[in-house]
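Ticket reopened. Same input as before:
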Amino acid sequence: ETVMTQSPVTLSVSPGERATLSCRASQSVSGNLAWYQQKAGQAPRLLIYEASTRATGIPARFSGSGSGTEFTLTISSLQSEDFAVYYCQQYNNWPYTFGQGTKLEIK
Amino acid sequence: QVRLQESGPGLVKPSQTLSLTCTVSRDSIYSTTYHWNWVRQSAGKGLEWIGRIHTSGITNYNPSLKSRVAISLDTSKNHFSLKLISVTAADMATYFCASNIEGRPYLNYWGQGTLVTVSP
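Engineering reply: fixed in the latest deploy. New output:
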């Protein structure tokens, strides 16, 4: 199966600053990659699909890039509600697989 | 938009069968070509895609679980179900149902999740 590896495991950033999260696939997933945000006690929420397209209602401060095996999620100016765990997920190869997550915490 | 709600026992004994239901509201389970999915989350394995069923009834299962899992649709009750046989402690997790539109295999609608504990 396609293994998704996210880095860093934990990222400490101050509100208002920029956060950059990485995701690497063990084999090419083309542009078939999504990003999700998960807060404690909640289901994941779709942020980005097709590597760079924001889902409905997602603020413009969230952006995604990459293709093949290397992907990035950038949050341009962190708001208090953005501190959460972020997961990447590939949907190019079955079974679809998730990364282990990056916890974004307040510095 | 679609709303999803999981239900089922929160406690299952080892070697027994885990059975969960996902009730779909605000849309018919057949009104659009959806995939109806089950995903679980555990401390040990993170998020794991269990499998999915298409509106047509075609299923896809994660090979790691394929020999133990079955997903089905219940048209009369507008819900879909998960059965996982021969459970062990490794199956202890929060189970989510989720949906995606055919051709768009990212999960845009999720249930709130239900915790299943495996214990004697």
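Residues 13 and 107 of chain A are 5 Å apart (CA to CA). The mean pLDDT of chain A is 97. Please confirm and we'll close it.
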